Amino acid sequence: MLSPAIDRACAIDAPPVVRVAVNEAKLVDLPSGTRRIILGAPLVVRAQRLSDGRHAVLTGTAFGETNMVVLDGAGVVLQEQRVRVDAQVGAGPVVQRGSERMTYSCTDQCQPLLQLGDGAPSKDIGSQILSRSNGAAGASAVAKDNRNKITGKDGAL
Question: Which CATH architecture has domain 4-86?
Answer without folding.
Answer: Sandwich (2.60)
